[in-house]
Amino acid sequence: MCNGTLRVQTYAARESAPVGNVRIRLRSADSQSAQEMEFYTDGEGNALDLELPAPPASLSLDENATQRPYSVWDLTADKEGYQTLTLEGLQLFAGQMTLAELEMRPMQRLGAPAPLPDSFETPPHQLYSPGSEAPSSAPVQFCEPAPAVLTAPIIPETITVHLGKPAASAQNVTVSFRKYIANVASSEVYPTWPEQALRANIHAQISLALNRIFTEWYPSKGYNFNITNSTSYDQYYVHGREIFEPMERITDDIFNTYVRREGTIEPYYTEYCDGKTVSCPGMKQWGTVDRANEGKNALQILRYYYGNNIEIVRTNNIQGIPQSYPGTALRRGDSGEDVRIIQRQLTRIAKNYPAFGKPGTDGVFGAATEASVKAFQKHFNLIADGVVGRSTWYKISYIYVSVKKLAELTSEGEEPTGSQDTITGSGYPGTPLRRGDRGTSVEQVQFWLQQLAEFDPDLRSLAVDGIFGSGTEAAVKAFQEKNGLAADGVVGRMTWDAIWSQYQSLQSDINQSNNGYPGSPLRLGSRGDAVRKVQFWLRIAATNYSSIPSPAVDGIFGSGTETAVKAFQREFGLTADGVVGPATWQKLYEIYADVTNQLLAPNQRPGVYPGTPLRLGSTGRAVREAQFYLVLMSAYYSSIPRINIDGEFGPATETAVKAFQKLFGLTQDGVIGPATWEKLYQQSQTLRTRDGLVHAYRLLPWPGFALAQGAMGSDVAWMQFLLEYIGYFYDQVQSPGGIDGVFGSKTRDSLESFQREFSLPVTGTADETTWNALTATFFSLAAAGSEQTALAAGPEYPGYVMKLGSAGDAVMQLQQLMNQVAVLYCAAEFVPVDGVFGETTDQAVRLFQEGLGLPVTGVVDEETWQRIYELLNPPIPASCANCAK
C-alpha cells in the first residue's frame, strides 16, 4: 500500500473568508473496523496535511486493471454556529494530493426554514465504474443555424449546471467556471496521468463547456441552465466533491483557453469518450495517456484526435475580472500600475485573510508585497515563489472578486447612512461640469480620476487644480469610454455618480479604517495615497480659508504640504506641528465635507452659533449647516425624519428639530437656539469622530399581498436583493438576473429554487411565508458566527454604531453582555443570542439606556456600549484607598 495526501481547508462561501477551528472527523470507508480520526483546522481554516494509504499508482495508469485505483474516505466537518457538512466517498490516489475545500454555511436563525442538508457524495470514479449513459455527441444542425447570441467567446464568471438530463426534474447549481472545470476533470480522468494527457483532457472539457455557452445551446431551447452533468449530453460534474491538486493547478493555468478550428471564432465542440467501454468519433481519454507517453504535448494530442486544423486560443475576454494579466510576471523590484492593481486586490483580500499581511499600495513590489503574495500562494495551493505569474494573477483576481462581491451585496442591504451627500461631501453639484469650468466640484472630479488612474492603466492621469481644461476633458472621456458611457467629456449626473462609485470602491479596498486614517501619523518625507488625500483636503479647505495655502496633489509630503498643514492646524486650534495625526486627519475630513456641502461662509469655522435663533422661515448657510447635522443623525436615529439640505427652514426642518429635541431631552419648540445648536454640533461630532458609521440592514415588511410574475416596484427589488444575497451562499439558489424591480421569468426561477432548497411549497410567488423565510435567511447569513466567537471578541467597542437591523458578531457580543448583566441584576431581561438586532434586543437596549440615564434611542453608540460593559466591570477609581481590599 502506498500513500496519498489529503489537504482539508475550511472557508466561508466562495472562499470569501477562512472559517477557522472547524472540527474534522475522518474515517476510511474501505474498512468497517477503521478508527475515526479527529482533528481541527487552524485559525486560517487550514488543517495539517495527512498522509493516508492508497493503492499503487500503477493501477490508475492501466486501462485493463480491475482493482479500484484509489482509497475511499468519509469526512464530517462541524463547528458551532455552522451547518454540519458531510462528504462521503472522498477519493485518494497514491502520490497525489486531494483537496477537500469545504464551504461552511451559517446555521439558520430567527425561525428561518432549514435548508437541504450539506451532505455530498462522490460516486465511484467514472473511469473505474463507468455509467450506462452513452457519451455526448457533437450537435447536428438540420437547417441553417440561428445567429449566435454572443459575438465572441467569453470565459464566464459562473456556470449553471443542471444535475440531470435536460428534461429531468433536477436541481440547478451555479458555480465558479474554474471550480466547475476542475470538478469535471476530477470526475472524468485520473490525477496520476501524465501532465500533457491531463492538459489535453482539460482543454477539451473547457472547450465543450464554452461551446454550450457561446451557442446559448440550452437557453435557446427554453432551459434556465448552461449545461447538464449528463454524459449523454455534456460532461460529468459531481456537486460538492473533492478536487485533485493537478486538476486545480492546470485549470488555474489554462481556464481562459479553448480549442477552435482555424479560421473560426466559436469554441470547438470537443466530443470525447473513455475509449475503453465506449467509443466515439472524438478524443479517447485512455488514448491520451498513450499519446502523452509517446512524447506528444497537449496540442499534438488534440490534433491527433480532432485534426491538424485545430488550435488552442487564449482569450482575455474574462467575465468579472477587474484587469487582464499584463503578459509578463511581476516580481520583487518591479513597479508601476500593474503592481498597484495587485497590491489593491491583496489589500482588500487581507481584510478577510489577515494572515496575508499588508502589501501597501505604493506601486513598488517590495518585501511586504512579496511576503503577501507568498502567503496568498501558499494558502491557495499555488507555488509559493512570491512571483505573480498568470495563475497567481488570476487567482488573486478571483478571490478579490469573491470578497468584493459579498461586500457589495452586503452594502446593498444596508440602511442608507447619508454618507453620499453628507459625511463625504460627494453629492452631484446640480449642473454638468465641462471644459472651462472651475471650482471645488471640478477639483473633486480631478482628484477622484487621478486616484483611479493610479490603479488602472486604461485611465489618464491629470492635474488637480480646479480648472476643467483639455487634460481633464481627456481623462473624463477615457473614463467614460472604459465604463460604457457617452464619451463627450462632460461630467453629468451619470458620469459623476460612476466616477464617485469607483473611487469609493477603491477607498474601501485600500483604507484601513472607516475615515481612511492610515494608522500612523503623516509627516515631512511621507509618501503615498494618504498624503495625496491630505493634500486634496487642504486644497478644498484653502478655497474657504484665506490663511491656508494650496499644496500640490502629488503624494509627496514636502515642505509645501507641511506649511499648509501647520496653517490648517493654527486655523482650527490644533497643535501646529505640521504632523497629520488622528485629530488633524479628522478635522481635515470634517472641513472638506463642510466646504463641499457649502455649509460655511468664507473663513467661518463649523459649529459656531449664528448669533440668533433659527426658526420656521429662516434661510441661509446656518440653516444648511443645521440641516446637515440633522441629516447625519437621521441615519442613526429613526425618529428623526430625513430632510433636504436646501438652506430653507420649512415645516420638514421644524419637525426634524422637534424630533431631535425630544430625543435628547431639550425643549420641543422646533427652534434652534444656543442649547439646541450646541447639542446638534456636539452630537454630530461625536458620531463622526468617535462612534463611527451605523451598520444596519433594512427591514422591509411583507407588502400584504403575494408578489408574482409581472409585479414591479421596490418590494420586488428588495426580494431580488435577498435572492442574490442568499444565492451567494447557496449554489442551488439561482440568480434573479439582477435587481431591477421587475418580476420576470428569471426572478420566478430564482424564487422557485429558493423555495425548493428550503423545503417550502414551490409556487414561484412570494407569499408571507416565503417573504419571511427570505428575510430570516438573509439575517441568518449576515449574522454568521457563533457564541464562542462573540465571547472571545473582548470588551472593545466594535468601531461602528448598531441599531435595529444590525447583525453579526458584535451584536452577538452585545447580547452576551446584556445577558451576563441579567444574571447579576434581576431588573434586566434575557435576550436571544442570535447575532441579530431585532425587536427584543432593541427593547432591551432601551431599558438599559433608561436605567443608565442615557438618551433612550435604541442605538448602541460607544457610550451605551461602554456603560453596559461597566455594569459587569466597574472602572477602578484613579485614587482608591481600599483597592487591595
Structure characteristics:
885 residues; alpha/beta; five-stranded mixed sheet; 25 helices; 16 strands; 9% strand
Terminal Cα span: 68 Å
> What is the tally of beta strands?
16
Largest sheet: 5 strands, mixed
Low-confidence stretches: 140-148, 786-793
Anisotropy-based shape: globular
Overall mean pLDDT: 91
- Placed side by side, the strands forming the largest sheet appear as 3-2-5-6-8
Residues in helix, %: 25-40%
The rounded Rg comes to 30 Å
Helical segment count: 25
Proportion of strand residues = 5-15%
Which structural class do the helices and strands define? alpha/beta
Q: Can you walk through the features of this model?
A:
The structure is a single chain. Helices cover 38% and strands 9% of the residues. The chain contains 25 helices and 16 strands. β2 and β3 form a beta hairpin. About 2% of the residues have low confidence.
